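ESCALATION

Customer reports they have been waiting on this structure for their group meeting. Please prioritize. Original submission:
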Amino acid sequence: MSFLEILLIALSLSADCFAVSISSGGTMKYINIRHIFRMAFFFGVFQAIMPVIGFFLGLNLINYISKIDHWIAFIILVAIGTKMIYESKKIDELNCNGNRSCPFGFKTLIILAVATSVDALAIGFTFSLIKTSILLPVIIIGAISFIMSILGNAIGYTGKHFFENRMETIAGVILVLLGFKTLISHII
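Update from on-call: job pushed to the front of the queue and completed.
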């Protein structure tokens, strides 16, 4: 897998982090830099850990599914991309007032980090199927997610929800295209 493909996957995976960060930053009357970096840390770490878990799960299953691994990779990438495109049509409001929990609290950050990194678990599984090393992708995915979370909070705080849906749609399209590329490269 080329560096560009890994970078595109990292950008696509970070779209959920970016969208949640925009929503989180957009709900704050005043934003605290400590909160921004805490969210970025959680998102970056979880986005880096989940592909490793998926990768090792995939390695354990590779002997059983090696004849159809490209189909599985295709289905996973297209499913995640399609889900992202679908979810980009709605905005889940996060709030720090009333009965709703603040997105920068520890428990909420754990839940958000897990929720935004489930796709990364599937991507890690895909990396094992296409026999890609996991070290470089994990570093890039974690770093990009960290950076995109910081940017998302900053944009959300200053510009509210203008970019959120567009970025997640673009990320979904990229994953769908990478799925088709994976399938076509194994068939041809």
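Sent to customer with the following note: The chain has one domain: 8-89+99-187.
Escalation resolved.
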